[in-house]
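User: hey, got a sec? need Esterase family protein folded
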Amino acid sequence: MTDERYLKRTILKETVESRFLPEGSRNLRVFLPPGYNEVLSYPVVYCQDGEDFFNFGRVATTATKLILDEGLEPFIIVGVDVDKKVRTEEYAPDGSRHEAYIRFFAEELVPYIEGKFPVKQRKEDRVLAGDSLGGTVSLHLALAYPDLFNRVMSLSGAFYASSQAIVGNCADLSWLTIYMIVGLQEDAYETDRGVYDFVALNRNTRALLEHKGAAIFYEEKDGKHQWGFWQQEIPQALRYFIEVE
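Assistant: Yep! Here you go:
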């Protein structure tokens, strides 16, 4: 039976106007932690595939449990919705909408959140989280805006050749901290770009990041390229970035 305390949570629907995105706006959902108080300030976890993180990843329930039961510092979660029809174009670094999306994210979304909610505004207090291509775009956001972001949570990141080339061309990445997990049963996963070995993609990207000096948590374990696997991994990933009070 689910503890009632975990079900009492506040999730707001927000819309951010954008001059970069063709639609002119983007919908968000914002989780406010237990005991939320506007005189305090909070770290923020920004999730790509926002709807999926909340519905399939159960990130709000997980966060509530971690805060109430394990004493993690209360934090806000911002889930950024995506139209699945243009997801690859926005999230992949060679996608036609990628530059517009990352500019929206860094130059419009973050200022919107930091203007409306009492959040901490150091890069150490912003975490970028994503699954598959969501992990990819999170890394590329940090690479494009290192003054804003230096913490990335990648769940089975889709680090295709274009991403690996960008990482390979970076100089020093000692400022970056990245959490990477991948499932061992993701070695022949069919995507809209073909069949890929996600284990190999993540191993190669890890080696490139290590060579550039990034701080990396890396783990391979039994799991498939699906939310059933990622949902189980979110608590450990959040513990990695959010400290106990």
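Quick note: The mean pLDDT is 96. Let me know if you need anything else on Esterase family protein.
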